[in-house]
Amino acid sequence: VIKRIDQMAPGTTVAVCGEPKTPSGWITTAVTSGYCATANGSNYVGRTIKRIEGMPSESVVAVCGSDPTPEGWVTISRNTSYCANVGGTNFLGRMIKKLDGMPTGSIVSVCGETKIPNGWITTNVSSGYCSTFGGVNSVGRTIRKVEGLPAGTEVAVCGTDPTPQGWVTISRATSYCANV
Q1: pTM, 2 dp
Q2: In what order do the strands lie in the sheet with 89-98?
Q3: What is the model's pLDDT at position 144?
């Protein structure tokens, strides 16, 4: 059985069975504790997916599994236990937050993100890990939305993010801003 989902409202959830890839604009929020079907020697994993396309700015969604963080969203925390185990496969959980549409100057703490959205820059890197679970050590950072700040604004940065378009480096620190 198939179901049309392309015009469903933001925030809608749908249970899927054996769908190999999460559709664009959706994310996996739960994985069932057992297989949703077994046929012809194949086991199919059941998941709940949520439509995140069109959700308001600053929305926070609990995610379960390995779906990549969508464009315009960041991981803000990681679970300290598995969100599911199916057939010996463990699934890690995390919380993601929508940055698109947030006001200029907004500050957000992220956990484990290596790529941040355009218009944002890292201003602090935590001295320890924000999460150490499931064989994954995640570095915590603070990011700030610099897109739209007035001309002449100066922002102290930390890390290796590329300098945003329209900005230049005017000085460099003589010591590290973080040691993880």
Answers
A1: 0.91
A2: 60-64, 89-98, 73-86
A3: 97
